[in-house]
Amino acid sequence: MRHLPAWRDWRRWIPAECPGCGRRQPGQGLCAHCLGQLAWDRAVPYCPVCRHPLRAGGCPDCPPGGPAYDRVVAAFAYAGLGRDLLQAYKTRRCLALAPVLADHLAAAVRQAEALQPPPDWIVPVPARRQGVRARGFSPAAELARLLAARLGVVYALDRVHRRHDGARQAGLNRAQRLHAPQGVYACGPSAAPARGGGRAPGPWAGARVAVVDDVLTTGATLQAVARVLKAAGVAHVQGWVLARTVSGRFSDARAAAPPGPDGRALQ
To answer: E strands along the chain, which residues?
Structure first.
């Protein structure tokens, strides 16, 4: 174990294939070309709360009066390569992508200064039991676990749980998605944290919580979880997500991004 730091440094330069385009490169993770495809367009103004592109100076996605959560940090848009990576991770159960995606989201959290002050806990959106049985893992929970280790925040797996599985949101329209998560989630009074550093769990009152999920579409799931957290006394709720579904010109541009330098698509 004393050589573990050296091994980690070695993995930064040992040749490997980019999981986005398959190009051989030094080190693990995405190549510079694929990282560029995932970068947010700085010319587009975004909602400071939900991270959706603004239209006519206003946010088309935030509910009237604002959402229950305080802000969203998203690593990339759910389009093009970002969509391909998420589908490989979730649908094709490519668990080896989890560290790469966690690194990317951790970098986005740091860049957004979302750790000032840091949250007391990282909480994953609870997965549907049927989904866990089908995949063999919870994408949000695995991502949250890795983020806790990278960011030094306590990982609390069971602080939010499902009362029941609820409706599967894939295939639902926007109105149905907004209604589906209502009454699904609840908070536990306490939980033992997993490894990851930070402070041990204490009372809900005044706490700061980061809720982790893989994709934010309408924001209905994050809204439902934030509501139960705020009702329990939590003071501040952030949503940390890998991908944010966006519409309009930016989404079209991301989806039309060219393949990698060798022309290969994501496997």
So the answer is: 15-17, 24-26, 71-77, 121-124, 154-155, 160-162, 185-187, 208-216, 236-244
One CATH from 3.40.50, 1.10.4030, 3.40.1000, 3.30.160 for 43-255: 3.40.50
Domain spans of the chain, in order of start: 43-255
Q: Is 58 helix (H, G, I), strand (E, B) or coil?
A: strand
SS3 221: helix
Over the stretch 99-140, which tens digit does the pLDDT of each residue have? 999 999 999 999 999 888 999 999 999 988 888 888 889 999
Q: At what angle do helices 80-90 and 98-111 cross, to 10 degrees?
A: 130
Specify whether the CB–CB gap between 93 and 136 falls below 8 A. yes
CA-to-CA separations, 267 to 17, 88, 100, 203, in angstroms, rounded: 11, 8, 15, 45
Q: Distance between CA 102 and CA 30 in Å, rounded?
A: 12
Q: Tell me how far apart the alpha carbons of residues 98 and 121 are, in angstroms, rounded to a whole number.
A: 20
Residues in a beta bridge with 122? 155, 210
